[in-house]
Amino acid sequence: MSTPVIAVISPGAMGAGIGARLTSHKVRVLTHIPAGRSQGSHDRAAKAGMHPVSLAQIAKEADWVFSVIPPDAALDFAKEFSAAYNSLGDEKRVGKPAFADLNAVNPSSVVRIAQLLGKEGLTLPFIDGSIIGGPPKEGYTPIIYASAEVGTEGAKVLDEFEALEKYGLKIGALRGEGAGIGAASALKMAYAGITKGITGLASTMILAAYANSPGTADALIAELSESQPALLQRFTRSIPDMIPKAYRFHGEMEEISGFVVEEGGGGSGDVHKGIAATYRRIEKSIKEDGEELKQLKDFVQRGVQVLEEKKKAT
After folding, report:
1. What gap in Å lies between CA 281 and CA 242, rounded to an integer?
2. End residue of a domain, out of 120, 151, 179
3. Domain range for residue 245?
4. Where is the Phosphogluconate dehydrogenase NAD-binding putative C-terminal domain (predicted)?
5. Which is it for the CA torsion 192, 147, 73, 19, positive or negative?
6. Based on the domain organization, do 125 and 205 belong to the same domain?
7. What is the pLDDT tens value at each position of the chain, 314 positions in all?
8. What is the CATH number of the domain that holds 148?
9. CA distance 107 to 260
10. What separation, in Å, do the N-terminal and C-terminal C-alpha atoms of the chain show?
11. How many angstroms separate the CA atoms of 267 and 163, rounded?
């Protein structure tokens, strides 16, 4: 089998990391950078060895399309790609490219995307995927969980996706009972709802403590160091990692809220709507160099200091 051509949309931190991993395994990697995107997008694509081209060229040349974008843009991108594919007319290829949605969207969202790619003249193989972990780097590979339509055709495309492991990816194919389109996204929602939800909840309460008084924030750090040192240590790592990603975490929290409601959680879905609001506050504070950003950074710095002092004292 010849080496596939894979398009990765877009060259953000995760997309560029996946692109770099694939190019290091001799895969030709295409991408698309719309007009108006930052120079950073172009720089990341170039560093990863990705080739920016039009969506029509991707539809014409790629064997696979990986959609790796903020969740609130996933459906719009699928629509744009559908239009580009249909614009090929007689040049359209049967069953190519296969489309893997690897975004942090809930099951109903990914079903809508799959349905979009299965109508209006499109019959493209579809993978519901979810990435757990950070961008690939030397010595580290995140896992991409994947599920597909139940049945023979779905099993075939899932096997083909899993075969991409030979190009430096780590893939976990979901083949358990009832694991069709939506299963991989549900796993991502549950996992991120816990991990990113904890970080968002912590940030919410830290900001509330600072807003009450500096003394309250002091006491919070001291108490966490005494009674919950493992939590404080976790927050000093997870909050700095979250800050540059807050702009896309709020969309992910909205998707998780929808997932909870759809799975019978009712009003429990409001939990992650609240966390989404916190991530929006942080995003706004980053743009304005606001107090929330300064307070979170202060908490992390002081938390690290307290933990180091306790370690030296033991």
Report:
1. 13
2. 179
3. 185-313
4. 211-282
5. positive
6. no
7. 689 999 999 899 999 999 999 999 999 999 999 887 888 899 999 999 999 999 999 999 999 999 999 998 999 999 999 999 989 888 888 889 999 999 999 999 999 999 988 765 567 899 999 999 999 999 999 999 999 998 888 999 999 999 999 999 999 999 988 899 999 999 999 999 999 999 999 999 999 999 999 999 999 999 999 999 999 999 999 999 999 999 989 999 999 999 999 988 889 999 999 999 999 999 999 999 999 999 999 999 999 999 999 888 87
8. 3.40.50.720
9. 11
10. 59
11. 41
The alpha carbon torsion through 166, 171, 173, 174 (nearest 10 deg) reads 180
Which residue has 């990914």 as its token pair? 110
Q: Which amino acid is at 30?
A: L
Quick one: 111 and 48 in the same domain?
A: yes
For residues 21 and 152, state if they share a domain. yes
> Same structural domain for residues 105 and 210?
no
In terms of domains, do 252 and 134 share one?
A: no
Return the closest-CA partner of residue 88 out of 125, 52, 51, 58. Answer: 58
Phi, psi of 193 (to 5 degrees): -60, -30
Question: Tokens standing for 287?
Answer: 């743009």
